Amino acid sequence: MKEGAGIKAGHRNANINADYRLLELIVINQHKPLTIKQILINKILANTITALTTLQFAFSISYRCQTILFHML
């Protein structure tokens, strides 16, 4: 039970970190505003990377499995 709660909390923190990375990207590029499409692509990539990292740490998934999961998304 505690492990599951820890994974959920870790995943929530990872999502918050992904949102911060996206905000940093927007702030850095504010002199040339991103299009909605660019923002969505960056958000999807950030969430995908975060999800794979979370999975790798939570379940010790090998790099090969991580690559397969990435291509399935």
Could you explain the architecture of this structure?
With 73 residues, the protein is mostly helical. The chain has one domain. Helix content is 84%, strand content 0%. The protein has helices at 2-28, 36-59, 63-72. Helix 1 runs antiparallel to helix 2 and helix 2 packs antiparallel against helix 3 (63-72). It is elongated, with a radius of gyration of 14 Å. It starts with a helix and ends with a helix. The model has no long low-confidence stretch (mean pLDDT 66).
Number of helices: 3
Query: Mean of residue pLDDT?
Result: 66
The radius of gyration over CA amounts to: 14 Å
Shape: elongated
Strand share of the residues?
under 5%
Q: How many beta-strand runs? A: 0
Distance between the terminal alpha carbons, to the nearest Å?
28 Å
Secondary structure blueprint with pairings:
Layout: H1 2-28, H2 36-59, H3 63-72
Helix pairs in contact: 1-2, 2-3
What distinguishing features does this structure have?
73 residues; mainly alpha; 0% strand
Q: Quick gist of this model?
A:
By secondary structure, this protein is an all-alpha fold. It has three helices and no strands.
